[in-house]
Specification:
The chain has 107 residues and is mainly α. 65% of the residues lie in helices and 0% in strands. The chain has seven helices and no strands. Helix 1 crosses helix 3 and helix 2 packs across helix 3. The longest helix has 18 residues. The two termini are 14 Å apart.
């Protein structure tokens, strides 16, 4: 049975993290918070954790969109750690290739 795309109330964890990464980036960029350290303090998490999450905003925009709309069964086996590894690649074409490799290994 194929699960359809997740509803906003039940979005897969990786999709929620990608959305959060973009929201955190926007808070700093807009000046709503001074910097990532302040963001960490307000969120009561370590600055390292904020950095891990924000790294996901470095994914190519089309990959972020794909992740946001992944079906729950597809997203269930993609880990945050794997996405962070892909996001560390500065070239979007290589990110896309690594993401496709990740998907191919799982199917």
């Amino acid at each position: 049975m194929h699960t359809t795309s997740a509803t906003p109330d039940h979005a897969p964890r990786v999709a929620r993290l990608v959305a959060l990464a973009n929201k955190l980036e926007e808070l700093v960029r807009s000046g709503a918070v001074k910097d990532y350290r302040e963001l960490a303090r307000l969120a009561q998490v370590s600055p390292a954790r904020i950095a891990q999450i924000v790294l996901l905003a470095w994914l190519a925009p089309d990959l972020q969109e794909r992740i946001l709309f992944l079906a729950t069964d597809e997203a269930g086996w993609i880990t945050e750690h794997e996405l962070r590894r892909i996001a560390r690649e500065p070239r979007w074409d290589r990110q896309r290739a690594r993401f496709e490799q990740l998907l191919a290994r799982r199917t």
